[in-house]
Amino acid sequence: MGVVQEEIESKYDRIIELKAFDDSNLGVKGLVDAGLAKIPRMFIHPQHNLYEKSGPIDSRSNIPIIDLEGVKNDVTLHAKIINEVQKACENWGIFQIVNHGISEGILEEMIEGIRRFHEQDAEVKKEYYTRDFTKKVIFVSNFDLFQASSASWRDTLSIAITPNPPDPIQLPLVCRDIVVEYSKQVKHLGYTLLELLSEALGLEPNHFKNMEFAKQGFFLGQYYPSCPEPELTLGTKHHTDPNFLTIVLQDQVGGLQILHENHWMDVPPIPGALVINTGDVLQLLTNDKLKSVHHRVIAKQAGPRISVACFFRTEFFDTEDNSRCYGPIQELLSEENPPVYQETTAEDYLKHYYSKGSGTSSLLHLKF
Questions:
Q1: 3-state secondary structure string, 15-68?
Q2: Does the keyword Metal-binding belong to this entry (predicted)?
Q3: Contacts for 139 with CB less than 8 Å, ≥ 6 apart
Q4: What is the DSSP letter of 367?
Q5: Can you tell me the distance from the alpha carbon of 69 to that of 197, in angstroms, rounded to the nearest whole number?
Q6: Is the residue at 327 inside a domain?
Q7: 206 in a structural domain
Q8: b/e map of 168-201 (b: 16 or more CB within 10 Å)?
Q9: Which tens digits make up the pLDDT trace of 125-181?
Q10: Count of domains for the chain
Q11: What is the pLDDT of residue 167?
């Protein structure tokens, strides 16, 4: 390292850079709007995370696509769909669904609603910027900004869906109507998927619903601006989801990847489709029968990329019974299939998830 570089290193203060970025209340888009040609140091990721092998550009023939047409009124199709869901969750932890009941018009308007929010006048958008995560409507860049080793190239609008959604008047005007409508429809779809997952495991259709694994729902409207140096950063770091189930609406830009058989593969955008991925909690409950998928979003010069990820889980905090424990479902255990995991409370699990950092499974510490 040269003398000049050493001097630069000695003067660099990461906390000052993070705080200046956060205090702007403008997020990553604010940096792009300012015309920067190089990304700030706080966004640069370790190189070994960026140059892992990626799969073929078109993984469409591999990642399962499940047609839900007839799932409610055709017994034969219903059984076929349950079998497809089971195989997809066992072998992939992710699949795409078509004919799911939410019209393409609603999906397109939801994407445009998130775009309008992030691209509106900065002074209006700044009013929603906060790190008070108890609020029901939050605009923020990087929830873990001050904890992570490097920041991700994205901004987020977070909105609660259930059990106590915000009053519509609290929602941003530019996307208010579509947020209300999409939240209603995606919640209904979430219940359908919980029934299919229950049946795929040989349980009663309402098993997971009765366990209240769709009781707390929220969505993240993600905005990934065009990146001048995409080879140095990521849109979202390598992680698994700390919930039961995630429903993802993505635009046609692409960038979502999953880790399958130690190989990064693209999840290709399909018009009208939704991406479904299982989370750590489902893997815990099923004793490793259904897998939680590792995934990330790469940064791109093309953009912006927009997605809406809806998360379903039990309530983690401020519930009447924070001591309720979750572990492998008894009906799925036997002498040949003993429990792999210890029981945990939802609160303890989530605290561990956010303390460990990205890239490793948050279930490892629970294994016997």
A1: HHHHHHHHHCCCHHHHHHHCCCCCCCHHHCCCHHHHCCCECCCCCCCCCCEEEC
A2: yes
A3: 27, 117, 125, 126, 128, 129, 130, 155, 156, 157, 158
A4: B
A5: 17
A6: no
A7: yes
A8: eeebbebbeebbeebbebbbebbebbbbbbbbbb
A9: 999 999 999 999 999 999 999 989 999 999 999 999 988 899 999 999 999 999 999
A10: 1
A11: 95
Higher pLDDT, 245 or 9: 245
What pLDDT score was predicted for residue 284? 95
pLDDT above 60 (res 317): no
The alpha-helical segments, DSSP class H, found in 203-345 are 207-210, 280-285
Tokens of 228: 């001048």
- Residue 184 CA to residue 181 CA, distance in Å, equals 5
pLDDT at 46: 82
Residue 128 lies in a domain: yes
Q: How confident is the model at residue 9 (pLDDT cuts 50, 70, 90)?
A: low
For 287: left if phi > 0, alpha if psi spans -120 to 50, otherwise beta; the answer is left
Q: Which residue has the higher pLDDT, 345 or 252?
A: 252
Average pLDDT, the chain: 90
Return the pLDDT at 49: 57
Higher pLDDT, 60 or 289: 289
| pLDDT score at 10 | 60
Per the domain annotation, does 19 fall within a domain?
Answer: yes
Reference 216, options 196, 243, 192, 189; nearest CA is: 243
Residue 174 CA neighbour count, 13 Å, CB half: 16
What residue numbers bound the domain in which 142 lies?
13-314
Q: What's the Cα-to-Cα distance from 227 to each of 41, 46, 210, rounded to whole Å?
A: 14, 17, 44
Percent of the chain with pLDDT over 90: 77
CA distances in angstroms from 322 to 31, 314, 315, 317, listed in the order given: 41, 11, 9, 7
CATH number at residue 246: 2.60.120.330
pTM for the whole thing? 0.92
The Cα 363–Cα 241 span in angstroms is: 11
Instruction: Tell me if 226 sits within 8 A of 277, measured CB to CB.
Output: no
Half-sphere CA count of 153, side-chain side, radius 13 A: 32
